[in-house]
Amino acid sequence: MARIIVVTSGKGGVGKTTTSAAIAMGLAKKGHKTAVIDFDVGLRNLDLILGCERRVVYDFVNVINGEATLNQALIKDKRCNQLFILPASQTRDKDALTVEGVGRVLEELSKDFKYIVCDSPAGIEKGAHLAMYFADDAFVVTNPEVSSVRDSDRMLGIMASKSKRAENNEEPIKEYLLLTRYSPERVKLGEMLSVEDVQEILSLHLLGVIPESKSVLNASNSGIPVILDDKSDAGQAYEDIVARYLGEDRPHRFIDEEKKGIFGKLFRSK
Amino acid sequence: MSLLDYFRTTKRGTASLAKERLQILVAHERSSRTQPSYLPQLQKELLEVVRKYINVEQDAISINFEQDEDQEVLELNIVLPDEHNKSSK
């Protein structure tokens, strides 16, 4: 049986797709057969972040409608043979997804895969609902910013009441906090909510902090999940997150300001 | 801290304000999530009943639902108008 992970946030633009691509690649690189599904029907982008946009033939909705088999639609990653991508449809509207259809696809994937990562669209409508409905674990991607924190809390409420696990009175979805676009310098100046602040408000288990980093845009520009950039801070942060999720005990990094030399202190570039 | 920061330290950061606002908001939104869905309807109907006898304003009635570990409290608060506003229907 596969473990189903939803990457969710409520708010858009906080880094769900970046995170989905990174952790799916991270899990696959650790040797676990992983599928990553784009639930953003009509606005697919996961393929672009993973650099396989020109290899899309069939999509999630084709599989649900029986127009293609799963094997025809799944795109095997060229860098890691344990990673498979199921792209969203670009043309249909979001009503193309149904509970039964999504359930069937996930069940079929579960037979063959160890992890299924569901990249949720923003908002709280159908796509977002279906992305979290079957989940076992939730990665709640949050920016240290008021509207993102509020929307994350809203998503937590929805997962606690509207998921399959909630409806069947099963053990609730395991929720983890991923704080992205974090800037320790601004936190130190009192300009940005700190990790502790966000944890205190959301009372969530912290899986990791991704620092605000140039490497994220560089990675998406080139269609390479940022986790493969192992020299970058964001890449390493995602690598830590995957390891922690798999049970490894790693100390948190990128929370405190980098130590700078005397010149760095006097002439800070940011 | 850079040299420039020494001249800025008097200004308090906005992060603490953000935290305060979020804590209030999130607490409020969480409590309304756990409320039973019939509350707005109950409030509306109660208001109609009360209005048959006393002329109260829309916001004169408030319903609060609280849940502890072992008990649920439904608190109903109706502010009656001053003597001269009372109608005798």
Structure description:
The complex is a heterodimer of chains A (270) and B (89). With 270 residues, chain A is an alpha/beta fold. Chain A is built from 13 helices and eight strands. Chain A has helices at 16-29, 46-49, 60-64, 70-73, 99-112, 126-133, 146-162, 164-167, 184-188, 195-202, 214-222, 233-245, 262-266; strands at residues 3-8, 34-38, 75-76, 83-86, 115-119, 137-142, 174-182, 205-211. An eight-stranded mixed sheet of chain A has the order 3-4-2-5-1-6-7-8, sandwiched between helices. In chain A, a hairpin with a 6-residue loop joins β3 (75-76) and β4. The longest helix of chain A is centred in the middle third of the chain and has 17 residues, at 146-162. Chain A is globular, with a radius of gyration of 18 Å. The mean pLDDT of chain A is 93. Chain B has 89 residues and is α+β, with helices and mostly antiparallel strands. Chain B has a two-stranded antiparallel sheet. The radius of gyration of chain B is 22 Å and the shape is elongated. Chain B starts with a helix and ends in an 11-residue tail after the last strand. The model of chain B has no long low-confidence stretch (mean pLDDT 78). The A-B interface holds A 145-146, 149-150, 153-154, 157, 161, 187-194, 197, 200-202, 265-268 and B 1-5, 8, 12-16, 18-19, 21-23, 25-26, 29-30, 33.
The ordered H/E elements of chain B are HHHEE
The class by helix and strand makeup of chain A works out as: alpha/beta
H/E element sequence of chain A: EHEHHHEEHEHEHHEHHEHHH
Number of strands of chain B: 2
Largest interface: A-B, 24 and 21 residues
Largest sheet of chain A: 8 strands, mixed
Broad shape of chain B: elongated
Alpha plus pi helix count of chain A: 13
Reconstruct the topology from this structure.
The complex is a heterodimer of chains A (270) and B (89).
Chain A (H helix, E strand, L loop, with lengths): L2 E6 L7 H14 L4 E5 L7 H4 L10 H5 L5 H4 L1 E2 L6 E4 L12 H14 L2 E5 L6 H8 L3 E6 L3 H17 L1 H4 L6 E9 L1 H5 L6 H8 L2 E7 L2 H9 L10 H13 L16 H5 L4
Parallel strand pairs in A: 1-5, 1-6, 2-4, 2-5, 6-7, 7-8
Antiparallel strand pairs in A: 3-4
Helix pairs in contact in A: 1-12
Chain B lengths: L2 H4 L8 H20 L4 H15 L7 E7 L4 E7 L11
Antiparallel strand pairs in B: 1-2
